[in-house]
Specification:
The complex is a heterodimer of chains A (141) and B (78). By secondary structure, chain A is of the alpha+beta class. Chain A is elongated and about 50 Å long. The mean pLDDT of chain A is 95. Chain B has two helices and five strands. The model of chain B has no long low-confidence stretch (mean pLDDT 96). With 78 residues, chain B is α+β, with helices and mostly antiparallel strands. Chain B starts with a strand and ends in a 6-residue tail after the last strand. Helices cover 22% and strands 29% of the residues of chain B. In chain B, strand 3 and strand 4 form a beta hairpin. Classes of the chains: A alpha+beta (141), B alpha+beta (78). The interface between A and B is medium-sized, with 24 and 16 residues.
Chain lengths: 141, 78
């Protein structure tokens, strides 16, 4: 298991996801919402994306993600627990680069909080991606 | 006094550096002017500025020794 609270080197593995799901046994939870973000094979200028290289301002990821977790937990009082992992480094198409697991007493807040949290991650977390093609060229997004 | 400047994403590529040190600069405004003169391509890119890991919403701020300023192109996580 990676030591960084939020960032994982390379793709997020099935094992990591399974490990966190197996720990969701708090008896006051009635719902768990899982979001997985996957690297898509976009076509840009007739070239297919083969992988994404993620880079991050790691210390600021930590402080900003802490704020988002607090914000969501404050707004959604039925949410008991939030797990979030984002890749840094290279993730190939078809692999997972973002994992969010939100646990709440009832399903309604798990669904709503999950959507809002993922939207906020995209807007506020200092992570960048370089889309890489098979001919070794790349484009920043 | 010295401040540390970090470049991320496409900005690290166009400045050809991840971080630099700048000495004797008094304000964030003057620092940005200096950087945009040093790296002209910065002017054609959108970016936010952080000061000690907090987004700076204006540049009318005095700098202190050891401040860490980062130039952050639009975020693209997920």
């Amino acid at each position: 298991m990676n030591k960084d609270l939020y960032l994982v080197e390379g793709a997020i593995t099935n094992d990591l996801v399974a490990n966190y799901i197996s720990r969701t046994n708090q008896t006051n939870n009635g719902a768990h919402s899982i979001f997985l973000g996957q690297v898509r094979n976009d076509i840009i200028d007739n070239k297919e994306v083969k992988a994404i290289e993620y880079s991050a301002y790691s210390e600021m990821v930590k402080s900003e993600m802490d704020k988002l977790v607090d914000l969501i937990k404050t707004k959604y009082d039925d949410v008991h627990n939030i797990i979030v992992k984002h890749s840094i480094g290279i993730v190939k198409t078809g692999e997972v680069s973002l994992f969010v697991l939100i646990s709440s007493g009832h399903r309604k807040q798990a669904f709503s909080a999950s959507k809002e949290f993922v939207d906020l991650i995209k807007e506020h977390i200092p992570i960048w991606k370089k889309e890489m093609f098979s001919d070794k060229t790349h484009v920043w997004k | 006094m010295k401040v540390k400047i970090l470049f991320f994403g496409v900005l690290s590529e166009l400045t050809n550096s991840n971080q630099i040190i700048i000495e004797n600069i008094d304000s964030l405004q003057n620092l940005i002017s200096l950087l945009e003169n040093k790296y002209e391509k910065l002017k054609s890119h959108k970016y936010q500025i952080s000061l000690n890991k907090e987004i700076a919403h204006n540049t009318d701020i005095l700098l202190k020794d050891m401040d860490e300023i980062a130039l952050l192109p639009p975020f693209a996580g997920g």
